[in-house]
Amino acid sequence: MAQDILAEETPGVADESPRRRFPTRLRRPALAVIAGLLLAAAFPPIDLWPLAPVSAAMLALILRGRGLRAATGLGMLYGLAFCFPLFEGLRPVGMDAWLALSVFEALYFALLGTGIALATRLPGWPLWTAALWITEEFVRGRVPFGGFPWGRLAFSQTASPYTGYAPLGGAPLISFVIALTGGLLAASVLALWRRGASSPGPAPGVRGVVLMLAGVLVLGLAGVFVPRPSGGRPVTVAVVQGNVPRAGLDFLGQREAVLDNHARETHKLAEEVRQGRLARPDIVIWPENSSDLDPYQDAQARQVIDSAVRDIGVPVLVGAVIDHGDGEHVENRGIVWDPKTGPGAYYVKRHPLPFGEYIPIFRGFLRKVITRFDMVGEFVKGRSAGNLGLGPVRIGDVICFEVAYDGLVRDVAGNPLLVVQTNNATFGRTSLPPQQFAMSRLRAVEHGRTMVVASTSGISGIIAPNGRVLDRSKEFTPAVQVERVPLRTSRTLSDHLGATPEWALALLGFAAAVVAAWRTRTSRGT
C-alpha cells in the first residue's frame, strides 16, 4: 500500500496487479490508521520511541497531494488510531469516557491533517509541516477548559537521543525536531521513489536526497551532545508510597485506610533510620490524596499525621483534600507539615481535571444523565504557584497531571527540587501511570532539576537532573524510597526562553497554512 501512495506521485508508473488486490479508496485510510497506531506504540508502556518520527513521515506522505476534505478525514482516522490506545488508561472510568475523550482529541488531528495537506504544497514543506505539529499541540494544550496536552510528540521521547533538546527549548522543541525528522524522512523517500520510477521530467538530485538524509541523522544525534549537568548541593529525600486498599473508583471510600497506610510506612521509615539501616532524610514527600480526610477539621486525621511526622522528625509534604464546609467545594492541597508546628504553607492545585475534579459546563444536566458524575466534587482552583519551603529545601510542587503543562511546571522550576504529587489508584496497571512518570522524567532534564514523584499506589520515583531514574516503585505495593540527590539552582536555556519557542513555532505553522491556502485559492482563480 505504501508503494501505491508513492506511485500516485509518479504518473508514468505501470499499474501492476498487486495494486488491484486492495481497493484504491481504502489505501490511504488504512495507512493513516497504521501510522496512528505506530505513534501510540512510541509512548509508554510500549515505548518504541523511534516510531514517532516514522509515524510523522507516514502522515506527511499520506496527506501530500490530498484535497482538504480528504485530508481532514485522514487526519481524523490517524487521530482516532493514536488516541484510542493512548487513552487506554481511562478503561476503569468507563468505556464512554474512553471513547469520548479519544474522539474529541482526534478532532485536533483532523485539523492537523488539513493543515499538513496545505503545507505540503509549499516549497520546503518538511519545515512547515513540523511547525504545524506545534500549532496543533499549542491549541490542544489550551482549548477548551485549559486544554489537555497529553500525547504530545515530546512525551514519547523521555529516554531517547531527542531528550537532549529539552534543556534548549523544552517539550515544544522536541516535538518540532521529531516532526521535522519525519518530514525530511518523507521527502527523502519521495525523492528516492521518483528517481527509481519512470516518471517524466528531471529526477530529483542526489545531492538534495543526501542533504535531507544527513539532516535526519543530525537531528537524531545532536541532542546526545547537549550537556546535562547533574551536580549540586546534596540533600536526602524520602518518598512514601503507602498504597491503597484496592484499585478503582471506590477507593476514596476507604479514606482512613489510605491515610493509615502512609502513616504506617512513615513510622517504618523512622524505625529504619533509628536502626541505622536507612539514612535520615532531610524531607519526606507524601502523595496527592494521602489524606482524603481534612486534617484541619478531622481531629483523628490530624493526630495520625502529626504522630507520623513527629516520629520521622523532619518536614513532610502531605497531600490532602480540604473541605470548604459548604458540602460541595473542596481543595486539593500539598501541605507543608512541620514536626513541631504542624501544618503551615500549602499549594492548591491550579488545574483541576475537567469532568474528573469539577464539571465545567452543564453540571446539573450531566449529573442527571450520567450518574457517575455524582462522585465528582467541585474542586476549587488554586491561585498561586507551588513554591514552598519544606524545611531546608525550596520545592516546586505540581499535582498529578499538571506535570503535562509547560507553564505550570515552569512557574516552579526556579526551585532547586521539583515534586509531583499524584494519585493513580483509579488508573493503576494501565498506560497512564508510566506515561505520567515519563513526563516527569522529561521535566527533570528540561529544567535541570531533581524530580521527585510521589504516588499513592505507584509509580513513585526519584529522577536525577540528567534524567537518570534513581529509584522507581512498583504499582500497588507499599514503598519507601530514600536517595541523596543534588539541588541545582542554575537555569537552563529553556527556562530563560520560556514559552517563546512554542509561540514562535505555532505561529509559523499557522502562517504556513494560511499562505498555502491563499496560494491554492489564487491558483484556482487564475
UniProtKB/TrEMBL annotation:
Membrane-spanning intervals of the chain: 29-46, 66-87, 99-119, 173-193, 205-226
Keywords in alphabetical order: Acyltransferase, Cell membrane, Membrane, Transferase, Transmembrane, Transmembrane helix
Residue ranges, annotated region (Disordered): 1-20
Membrane topology, record value: Multi-pass membrane protein
Residues annotated as domain CN hydrolase: 235-487
Protein's UniProt keywords contain Acyltransferase: yes
InterPro entries for the chain: Apolipo_AcylTrfase, C-N_Hydrolase, C-N_Hydrolase_sf, LNT_N
Chief location category: membrane
Pathway field: Protein modification; lipoprotein biosynthesis (N-acyl transfer)
UniProt key word Transmembrane helix: yes
Molecular function as annotated in GO: acyltransferase activity
Family: Belongs to the CN hydrolase family. Apolipoprotein N-acyltransferase subfamily.
Described function: Catalyzes the phospholipid dependent N-acylation of the N-terminal cysteine of apolipoprotein, the last step in lipoprotein maturation.
Protein name: Apolipoprotein N-acyltransferase
Organism: Actinoallomurus acaciae
